[in-house]
Specification:
The chain has 120 residues and is mostly beta strands. The chain has one helix spanning 26-29; strands spanning 5-7, 10-13, 18-23, 33-39, 46-51, 57-59, 67-72, 77-82, 91-98, 107-110, 114-119. Strands 2, 4, 5, 6, 9, 10 and 11 form a 7-stranded mixed β-sheet that branches. A 4-stranded antiparallel β-sheet has the order 1-3-8-7, with no helix packed on it. The longest helix has 4 residues, at 26-29.
Length: 120
């Protein structure tokens, strides 16, 4: 059974930083394009960032320039470095393994999520 385990969430003041981690299995992190999504209270889950097979990354406009996705293949870990956090970044953040086709949103596996709360 595929498992994706997030960690690193917490509470931080506006302007602060957090780094989320997601550990998966070799056949997940190495096969899919790892991504992050988030869901705020009363909102739909939204895509945040994805890392593609060529090592490039894409970001939602709302986080571009503030968030950075990275991956350590030796430890099957995906990271999301979040800087200059704002209250609107408050959400549950989910690690996801998606099919490596940028024009689809085909997520095959989800983590359970980690809460990020940003206070003003």
């Amino acid at each position: 059974q595929v498992q994706l385990q997030e960690s690193g969430g917490g509470s931080v003041q506006a302007g602060g930083s957090l780094r989320l981690s997601c550990v998966g299995s070799t056949d997940t992190v190495g096969y899919f394009c790892m991504s992050w999504y988030r869901q705020g209270a009363g909102t739909q889950r939204e895509w945040v960032s994805s890392r593609w097979t060529d090592g490039s990354a894409t970001y939602a406009d709302s986080v571009k320039g503030r968030f950075t996705i990275s991956q350590d293949n030796a430890t099957n870990t995906v990271y999301l470095q979040m800087n200059s956090l704002a209250p609107e970044d408050t959400a549950i953040y989910y690690c996801a393994a998606r099919v490596c086709r940028a024009w689809t949103n085909d997520v095959r596996h989800w983590g359970r999520g980690t809460q990020v709360t940003v206070s003003s």
